[in-house]
Structure formats: structure tokens, C-alpha cells
Specification:
single chain, about 325 residues, alpha+beta, BirA Bifunctional Protein, domain 2, 8-stranded mixed beta sheet, 3-stranded antiparallel beta sheet, globular, AsnA, cytoplasm, ATP binding
Length: about 325
Amino acid sequence: MNLIIPKDYKPALDIRQTQEAIKYIRDTFQDELGRELKLQRISAPLFVTRSSGLNDDLNGSEEPVHFTMTSQDGEEVQVVHSLAKWKRAALGRYGFGLHEGLYTNMNAIRKDEELDNLHSAYVDQWDWEKVIGRGERNVATLKEHVETIFKVIKHMEHEVWYKYPQAVHHLPDMIHFVTSEQLLDLYPDLTPKERENAITKELGCVFVMKIGAVMRDGQKHDGRAPDYDDWDLNGDILFWYEPLQQALEISSMGIRVDEESLHRQLEAEGCLERESLPFHQAILNAKLPCTIGGGIGQSRLCMLLLGKAHVGEVQASLWPEEMHAACREAGIQLL
């Protein structure tokens, strides 16, 4: 069992107060995110057909929850891992224009997740996507959007402090940028996760860029599906999280693949057969807009702002009984 028990942990809010705070954070944050990034809230699916190619393949090894529907003539339907691809297709289908975008409340099941303080089989996040010009597919555009999201998170810290001063977890005042290769140069003897912990502990909050490709040491910093993020224009927002003494990822985001980067990344992963799928064909034939997008963990954000020790304190999911028992003994109140 992978479980960290912080020393002398005592939650500042009880379960009912926590539930109230969760609603406040979620309602307030999504409104501010939509306003700052000029995003419209839309509805999104819980499942998609396998043949559409719209599901997120994550690292390529996780099996989606799947089933068949009577009305679909036996076609396999998959519960989404995320909406990374679906959002881009929706922007084109709904006629969103340049610098317009959408966000949605995404719920997913990742049944193969290794459960611990930060990881659950139930995923809840704000998935967002925005149309950009082809000439805006660059690092400057990526950093601009990262800094905007950081600004919204910082503003939420102040909002939560005003309403729950006894509970708020204080955050650093700025975000730093570093590439996965730079982390390798800085910490050549550490694993990728250990590098993230080291740099985030030093700087407080970092955006680790360029994730997915093989680095000069022959390893990947982390896995990324080859058919949504451009591996040269993506990254993760990480906060140093003192209660657990480790980095806490709040968001994975990036500028999406174009025709060239899609083909190159599919080839690198040995899955060029995906080019025949409808979503991939639309990209290869330039029928979808250029976009930037990502996901922001709803429970992760609540956990970060409220100083919780376990994601199960801010979302209702399933956990092993031994984890329940250990958490009860430590005063960690799983929902």
C-alpha cells in the first residue's frame, strides 16, 4: 500500500465543512478560469466509441472501462480517460473562432491507477481547450497560458483564505519554467519523479516542459500519448506540497499536435495505424483548428488549497480497506 501519513496531521475542517469548501472552490474557480481564458462551459460525454479514436490512451498501457450498447449494434464503447482529443473536435464542430475556447467538467474512470495519497480510480477535472492561430504554436503562447492559470490559482488561494482562514494552504508567489532535459542536466543521478520533487522543493512551483519524447539518456521523463500534445510544446504544473513532502501535479497541458508532429510522434511510438482513425485523419488533413488545452484536477486543487493529506478527503471514491483503516487511525477522513 502506497500511503503517506503526515506527522501530527489534523484537518482544519470537518467533513461537512470540507464539503462546503469543495463546492465553493469548484464554483468559484471555474468561473474565474472561464473569464480569464475566454472559455465557454459546455457539456461533455462520459463515454465514446473505440472506433472514433477520441479516447485518451494515456501511457498506452492502461485499459479503459468498456462495454457495448444495444443501440450501437455491438460496437465497443469506452469510458473516457480524459477528453484531450474530444475537446479539439468539439471546437471545430461547434464553430468556435480564433481565441475562443471551451471548458467542461470531466469525469473519468482509470481502473488501472495505482492508488495513493494523490491518485484515485475516479478522475474529476476541468478539461479546457482554446483555438489559436498556426503562428501561435510556440513556447511564448504556452507560457502565457501557464501564467494565466497560475494567476487564477493564486487568486483562489486568497478567496479561500478569506472564507476559511484556518484551513488555507499558502502557495508560492510565482511559477518557474524548466525543461525535462534541463532537469536531467541538473539531477543526472535521480529518477524523473525525484527530479520533479527536487526542483519543486527548491522553487515552490514549476512548469516542467517537453514531456513525452525520449531524452538524451534514452529514457522518457514521463509517458504521453502521441496524438494530442506536441511533445515540444507541453508540460505539467507542479507545486511543492509540504504536507506530503513531494511535488503535486495540478495540471497537464500543451499546444496540440499539427500534421507534422502527429505523424512524427505516432511513428516514434510505433502506432502509425492510428492515422486511419477519423480524429487523426481530421488533423492530417488540416480540418481541425490549431488549439492549446489541458486538464486541471478539481480534487487536486481542493486538496492543495485546503492542505489535505489525501485526495480521498475531497472526493468520494473506492479505496482498499487497509488504506481506510490506516487513514482512520491517523485522523484522515476519507469521504
